[in-house]
């Protein structure tokens, strides 16, 4: 197998590489933008399990994610950002109870 430049990798492999690099750092805060983008369902479930372990180790995750159901499997607090400013920051159970919110 020959070495490839990061830019030559497929989107999925590039995302896995970037996630692995992020997880190798020992910083207490990990920022991830759309962490499941480019993964199939099996890979998403594996990444979710890894991220739950990261949280159990005491690290803080900040995810930028559009899928609330995926975020709910990992996160315990949410910050909802509309077009400008922010709308809410609270545990998911409280967020779901807000009037006018889809569950």
Keywords:
103 residues, Rossmann fold, two-stranded parallel ribbon, two-stranded antiparallel sheet, 40% helix, 17% strand, globular
Overview of this structure, please?
This protein has 103 residues and is α+β, with helices and mostly antiparallel strands. It has one domain: Rossmann fold. Helix content is 40%, strand content 17%. It contains 4 helices and 4 strands, in the order H-E-H-E-H-E-E-H. It has helices spanning 11-24, 41-56, 68-72, 92-97; strands spanning 29-33, 60-64, 77-80, 88-91. Strands 1-2 form a two-stranded parallel ribbon. A hairpin with a 7-residue loop joins strand 3 and strand 4.
Strand content: 15-25%
Weakly predicted, low-confidence segments: none
Number of domains: 1
Quantity of strands, as a count: 4
Q: How many separate helices?
A: 4
Helix content: 25-40%
Give me the CATH architecture, please: 3-Layer(aba) Sandwich
CATH class reads Alpha Beta
Question: What number is the mean pLDDT?
Answer: 80
What fold name goes in the CATH topology slot?
Rossmann fold
């Amino acid at each position: 197998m020959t070495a490839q430049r990061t830019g030559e990798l497929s989107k999925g492999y590039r995302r896995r590489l970037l996630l692995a690099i992020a997880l190798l750092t020992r910083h207490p805060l990990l920022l991830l933008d759309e962490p499941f983008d480019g993964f199939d369902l099996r890979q998403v479930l594996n990444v979710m399990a890894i991220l739950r372990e990261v949280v159990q180790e005491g690290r803080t995750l900040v995810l930028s994610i559009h899928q609330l159901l995926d975020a709910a499997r990992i996160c315990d607090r949410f910050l909802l950002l509309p077009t400008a400013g922010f709308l809410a920051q609270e545990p998911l159970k409280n967020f779901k109870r807000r009037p006018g919110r889809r569950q």
